[in-house]
Write a structure and sequence with these properties.
The protein is of the alpha+beta class. 19% of the residues lie in helices and 29% in strands. The strands form five sheets. Strands 1-5-7-6 form a four-stranded antiparallel beta sheet, with no helix packed on it. Strands 4-10-9 form a three-stranded antiparallel beta sheet, with no helix packed on it. Strand 12 and strand 13 form a beta hairpin. The chain starts with a strand and ends with a helix.
Length: 171
């Protein structure tokens, strides 16, 4: 295995099906309770983000075909968690087998998205551009809502950026 690849252990119960969000989506053949692992993700680790990545660290972005089918939702039923060199999809709430599409909030998956977009899940579409955008536009209610499942390194990156900005403003 190449140094920049993470082992992929895609769960056999996950499958692709028609999405109500966009194209094809990811589904599970078995019900999942809140807090359960939905599946494990793996693939190539890139230094820069693209449309098909999830940020797993500073200048580390996981890319795989599997990620293409995890659609965005502003009120997702799953989230991404990075544990050592393992990337895990965990359920935020119960996911019914075969009927509930597995979704994540893309604002929690990258510091800034390579290709921002308007969401399709809300009556008044949100601009989805990544965690940095939420910080820069002071979206405190949104930030409070996602605080429980945003990737820790995204919060740390915003803290570093804020500290640098404060220092440059005081000089």
């Amino acid at each position: 295995m190449a140094e920049n690849d993470l082992a992929c252990e895609t769960s056999s119960w996950l499958f692709l099906g028609p999405s109500k969000i966009n194209g094809l989506g990811l589904f599970s053949r078995k019900p999942t309770s809140s807090g359960d692992v939905v599946g494990k993700l793996g693939g190539a680790v890139l230094e820069t983000a693209n449309k098909r990545t999830i940020q797993i660290g500073h200048h580390r972005h996981l890319c795989s075909d599997f990620i293409d089918f995890i659609n965005h939702n502003c009120r997702p039923n799953a989230y991404v968690m990075v544990v050592s060199d393992m990337v895990v999809l965990k359920a935020l709430k119960a996911i019914d087998s075969e009927t509930d599409e597995i979704s994540i909030d893309y604002n929690c998956s990258e510091y800034f998205l390579a290709e921002p977009f308007m969401c399709r899940c809300c009556e008044n579409s949100n601009y989805i551009a990544g965690y940095e955008h939420l910080i820069k536009t002071n979206q405190h209610d949104y930030l409070r809502r996602i605080n429980q499942f945003v990737l820790l390194h995204l919060i740390q990156m915003s803290d570093v950026a804020r500290t640098k900005s404060t220092k440059s403003n005081t000089q």
